[in-house]
Amino acid sequence: MAVNKEHPLVVLTVAFVKEQLEGAEAGHDWWHIHRVYTLACKLGEAERADMLVVQLSALLHDIADAKFHGGDEELGPDRAAAYLALTELDADSQKHVVDIIRHMSFKGGFNEGKFYSLEYAVVRDADRLDAMGAIGIARTFHYGGFKNRPLYDPAVPSVQYADKEAYKGSTAPTLNHFYEKLLLLKDGMLTESGKRLAEGRHAVLQGFVEQFLAEWHGEA
Ligand code: ADP
Ligand code: NI
Hints:
Bound molecules: adenosine-5'-diphosphate, nickel (II) ion
Largest sheet: none
Number of helices: 10
C-alpha cells in the first residue's frame, strides 16, 4: 500500500502517540517520532514496503521506552498491541507491527538478527538515523544532561559491553556513547536508502568527535 498520511488509522495513531508522549524526555519525545516517521515514509517508498505497516510501526515504536519505565521491555509492545486491537487493522498487520516494535531497540547490539521483514528494516534504519548526524549529537548530550553525566572523562575508557544489562547499566561519560553505539550504527544499516543517508550522518559524528577531542586538549 502506498504512503497515505491522511489514512484515518494514521491520523488516529498520531493523536494517540502524542498523548502517550506528553512530557517525555526531549530525545524520545513526539518530535523524535515525527522525524523517524518522516524518514521511514521516505525510505519505505524507496524500498517499496507496505506503507501502512511502516507508518504505524514508526509512530508506535517508542510509546513506552523501557529506559523510562523501570526497564520493562514488554510495556511498549504490549501497549501498542492493546491499542491496535481496538482498531480495524487486520490481525496479520497488527502482529507484524508489534513484532517490529519488539525488535527495534539497539541495547548494545545484543538484539540483532532475531527478526526480519522489509518494513522492520525500514523503520529500524529510520530510528537509527535519528541517533546519528547533528540530531544524534543533540539527543545524546541532552540525554547525558538528563542523567547528569559528565561530558567526557579521559580516565574512563569506552568499552565493549559484555551483555545487554551491562550496556543498559552504564553510567559512562556522554562522549563514550559515540564509541559504544553511535559510530557503530552505520555498518548495521539494513536498507540501501538507509546506508546512503548513514554515510553523511556518520561523517558528521566523526568530525564532531575529532573536533571535541582536539578542543579538549587545547589543540584546535
Ligand atoms: P535503543 O532503545 O535503540 O537502545 P536508545 O533509546 O538507548 O536506543 O537510544 C536513543 C538515543 O538516546 C541515543 O541515540 C542517544 O542519543 C540517547 N542515549 C541513550 N543512551 C545513552 C547514553 N548512555 N548516553 C548518552 N545518550 C544516550
Ligand atoms: Ni526511537
